[in-house]
């Protein structure tokens, strides 16, 4: 696997709130959202339950905070990748697409707790309007980032097609995570993402 990033792990924070969120994320990975209990979070974070309730009035408030942490982490990884690669305004189309591909490969192979939690939150969001709204905003931001790439390298492309390409790109990236979490032998990730990139390049360049 030639495209794995060397991303800095989020440092272990002494912040009580960060300890709570990290503990909750670990429990979600181990037991799923439905299995999470405030008592377990307190034990995992080495805190009292009253510490949890000081920051979050309910389990739902805590879950929404964890969801934001998960969704924001993807953007943080992309920003680290840009910094690590030294990509600037002169970056090629291939370079720009690689940022998204490398981020997804990293969370699939190296730090899958975010993809695991994201899928669990997606399932919960079908019944929770607040979680649903967070996902809508996250995907909207993701599509906007990719649409800006299409606008840069194909400024004459109709906006409708730019929007379609952005949506297709997100589906290709997320689809890899879902399939790989279910069946790690389903396909070779390098080949999958190389083909995804070739599709997007062909569509953007026309």
Would you give an account of this structure?
It is a single chain. Helix 1 (about 15-30) packs across helix 2, helix 4 (about 60-85) crosses helix 6 and helix 4 runs parallel beside helix 7 (about 130-155). The chain is built from nine helices and no strands. It is elongated, with a radius of gyration of 18 Å. The protein folds into two domains: about 10-55, Arc Repressor Mutant, subunit A (Orthogonal Bundle), CATH 1.10.10.60; about 65-205, Tetracycline Repressor, domain 2. It has about 210 residues and is mainly alpha-helical. It has helices at about 15-30, 40-45, 50-55, 60-85, 95-110, 115-125, 130-155, 160-180, 190-205.
| Shape call | elongated
- The CATH architecture assignment of the largest domain turns out to be Orthogonal Bundle
**Element string (H = helix, E = strand):** HHHHHHHHH
Number of helices: 9
The CATH superfamily of the largest domain bears the name Tetracycline Repressor, domain 2
**CATH topology group of the largest domain:** Tetracycline Repressor, domain 2
Give the N-to-C terminal Cα separation: 29 Å
- Supply the CATH class of the largest domain: Mainly Alpha
Number of domains: 2
Quaternary: single chain
Radius of gyration: 18 Å
Question: How would you sum up the major sheet?
Answer: none
* Strand runs, count: 0
Question: What portion of residues is helical?
Answer: over 70%
Domain HTH tetR-type: 14-74
InterPro entries: BetI_C, Homeodomain-like_sf, HTH_TetR, Tet_transcr_reg_TetR-rel_C_sf
GO molecular function, one term: DNA binding
Keywords: DNA-binding, Repressor, Transcription, Transcription regulation
């Amino acid at each position: 696997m030639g495209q794995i990033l060397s991303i800095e792990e989020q440092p272990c924070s002494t912040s009580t709130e960060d300890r709570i969120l990290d503990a909750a994320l670990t429990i979600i990975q181990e037991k799923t959202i439905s299995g999470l209990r405030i008592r377990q979070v307190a034990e995992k974070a080495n805190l009292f339950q009253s510490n949890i309730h000081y920051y979050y009035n309910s389990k739902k408030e805590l879950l929404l905070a964890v969801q934001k942490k998960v969704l924001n982490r993807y953007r943080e990884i992309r920003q680290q990748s840009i910094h690590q690669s030294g990509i600037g305004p002169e970056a090629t189309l291939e370079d720009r697409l690689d940022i998204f591909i490398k981020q997804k490969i990293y969370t699939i192979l190296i730090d899958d707790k975010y993809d695991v939690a994201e899928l669990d939150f997606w399932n919960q969001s079908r019944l929770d309007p607040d979680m649903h709204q967070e996902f809508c905003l996250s995907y909207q931001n993701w599509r906007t980032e990719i649409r800006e790439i299409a606008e840069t390298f194909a400024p004459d492309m109709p906006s409708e097609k730019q929007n379609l390409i952005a949506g297709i790109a997100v589906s290709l990236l997320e689809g890899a995570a879902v399939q790989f979490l279910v069946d790690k032998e389903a396909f070779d990730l390098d080949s999958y993402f190389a083909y995804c990139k070739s599709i997007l390049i062909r569509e953007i360049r026309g």
